[in-house]
User: Fold these one by one.
Assistant:
Number 1:
Amino acid sequence: MSDIHANYEALQVVLADIEQRGIDTIYCLGDVIGYGPNPRECIELCRKVRFSLLGNHEEAVLFHAEDFNAKARRAVDWTRDQLNSDEHDKESNYALWDFLGEMKRKKTKGRYFFVHGSPRQPTREYVLPKDADDTGKMNDIFDGFEDVCFVGHTHIPGVFSRKGDQYDFRYAIQLDNEYPLPTDGDKVLINVGSAGQPRDNDNRACYVTIEEDVVRFHRLEYDYKTTMKKIQAVEDLADYLAQRLEEGR
Ligand SMILES: [Fe+2]
């Protein structure tokens, strides 16, 4: 899973679905926090995952938010304040910061390579559907991993594949949410979508499972109205952050 963005309602539904499938190894590709109203609760829940990678929002909260626009920066500052809240004891605040501080930029497990954004710029670069036409960019990105790369960051679930020197992007829905990994040595880059702020015009939480080299995209309804209300109640979180949860964009 990736891009939870402090959406507690979505994360609970995703984790319940994972548990119900009997899956015990969970990887998170970053942006556990940022934009949403429950950064503390989402970090707490993410303690049970095998690893959480560093996303651009964790990077912004930990280090700097220069490349964020004014509204996004305000959300970053608010998130940082939540993690330093006086209403909680110091130890529990430190534990949250430790979790963020331990996040790695990339991970490899067997044939799988995991990163938040892209292999060449782990936390920042967006690999968007239209980039499939940018052969130079795609060549560089595909040179950055060996076999199968999983990313998040754009919040748009789907698969980039390569045939010869041509690249192709398919939305998860075009693949019927199922993608058998190539066995002929072709590389693929898979975007797992966003658990907490989908942007493919489908407002349901998204995550993928990998089982016997078949990747499946799962979509789950959750109580986004509650998340919206929480966002609207926080002055530092812009209203469009609530609205986009309803619209899935
Ligand atoms: Fe994100």
Number 2:
Amino acid sequence: MLDWIAFDADDTLWKNEETYLQGRAEFLEILQGYGLEASDIHKFDSFEVENIQYFGYGVMSFVLSMIEIAIQLTGEHIHPWDIQRIIQLGKRMLTAEVEVFPGVREVLGTLAAEYPLMLVTKGDLLHQERKFQDSGLREYFRALEVVSDKTPAVYRAILDRYGVLPERFLMIGNSLRSDVLPVLELGGWGLHLADHPTWSHEDDTLKEGVYQRYLEAAGIGDVLGVLENRGLLGDDRVD
Ligand SMILES: [Mg+2]
């Protein structure tokens, strides 16, 4: 029933959101030095989302957004030293150790024995390639696709490039909005990891009972069981 299985990376295979939460906390600390309150910084979230159209996803976009809002909120009084701190914060985020979730290797090892696996991730190209390398998970994957966004058109282009029919493609990820819904819309399979940490921008709602190829697991450790139950893996697999 499947020709390829694709995985998201950030917050699916390894920790990511935690790094951003720590980054936000440090940014708040810098701005508190200017008498700003935590409530002022909430503006940052909408600012960051607004900037995606210009800078895309990833740490570099996050850093530019922090600098831009710091200039605005301090009435252009932020000290160059603090801008330097924001840039250093970004560099630490870009070079942070990749922490793979427990159970990921077992899942990938089992699936890679039956299917070619693809990683589909959005963000800074250099950063995503480095994390892929540092994760030690490269051996399980036949393909890496770093994309600027995860829309149905982007998935369609990937499927065309690999010559895969949507109904024979499964995407697994923590984001309904980016990993699951666009693939379901094309007629593919989407498996949502419902309990993984997820940035609120990636939330979305699923219309109940509309998608026949929607699957859900609490976490990465439950993926094999869910696929076995649907006949996509193991002895009862349907080809
Ligand atoms: Mg993700």
Number 3:
Amino acid sequence: MAKYPLVAVVAMAKNRVIGDGKKLLWHIPDELKRTKMRTMGRPLIMGRQTFDSIGCALPGRANIVLTRRQDWQAEGVEVVHTIEDALTTAEAWIDAETEREKEIIIFGGAEIYRLFLPMLRAIDATLIEATYPSNNATHFPESDWGRWTEDPAYPSTRTEAQGTTPAYRYVRYVPSIQPRQ
Ligand SMILES: NC(=O)c1ccc[n+]([C@@H]2O[C@H](COP(=O)([O-])OP(=O)(O)OC[C@H]3O[C@@H](n4cnc5c(N)ncnc54)[C@H](OP(=O)(O)O)[C@@H]3O)[C@@H](O)[C@H]2O)c1
């Protein structure tokens, strides 16, 4: 049971590709800026491989990294080894200062999205209107998409393709049935 809502923030291609296991497959500066704004002041729960792909702790947010390695550590990171510890750490970080946003961001990658999927209150997705090779790629987990519905109240802006940057749009999916928390 999480004390605060859990929201996944993800950018994914049409075929649900989110990266190649080491990095993203696109470079969309405006999307990165938006993700920064969307996650600022909130705790992020991410997998160790996503942390490695970013390479450093993101400022203005709690960087909570799940790993099974008992000896793993990195500067600016809160290391956790279980889902329960990840949630407790995120909640404690929010509660430590009154102005912090009362929302926990599930920041990826695929293994971490999969772990938290049943608990999500929403998926804030950037849908990239392109398909990337699936072989050896990392995908957003299979979901019963019938369980998710687009939130019509969410401002779903679309950006046209420009040069090598594909078109993309922002969508919020919410479960038709409320998740267990
Ligand atoms: N497009 C997007 O929005 C987005 C967002 C995030 C990431 N990505 C991409 O996704 C890829 C990485 O995703 P990924 O699925 O390979 O890795 P990941 O989910 O970032 O991290 C996996 C790691 O998390 C740890 N872990 C997983 N389950 C655990 C559990 N139950 N308990 C404790 N630790 C656990 C393990 O770390 P140890 O091996 O250290 O034990 C595991 O290797 C990269 O390409 C990245 O760029 C894309």
Number 4:
Amino acid sequence: MVITNIWVMMHDENVYPDPFVFNPERFTGTNPQADPRECVFCICAGQHLAETSLWIQMVLPLATVTISKAVDEDGKTIEPKVEFTTAIVSHVEPFQYQITLRSLRNLALMRQILPDTV
Ligand code: HEM
């Protein structure tokens, strides 16, 4: 069995300069960098289902809340340290953040989705 290291391929400086910089523009314009989906999904039969499900899971919260950096008790922004675990599946290390409702109209909706937390 061969397990490919997709993380390394997605952080290859020769393909994606400054790979740790969040730069969605790298995939647009007249000279875009390689589409990561060709490598990440390879021959995946569930690509369209996976992409559509992830899209819905990401845009629903983003449509109703603002996610921002946390602030300390003096109101100073806490810069998150972006660190990842190392294992076959790499996860982002926990960090502090802040979630605020965009409008009170969304409160009822959030209570429906997260009844024990809002
Ligand atoms: C983000 C989510 C997903 C990623 C990153 C992903 C990635 C991959 C990759 C890299 C392969 C090729 C593995 C190999 O080299 O043999 C693969 C195969 C496959 N995936 Fe996914 N997958 C995802 C979600 C799904 C979902 C949701 C389904 C089904 C509902 C699915 C069904 C399959 C099937 C059936 C294959 C085997 C295809 C074949 O050998 O012809 N995948 N996937």
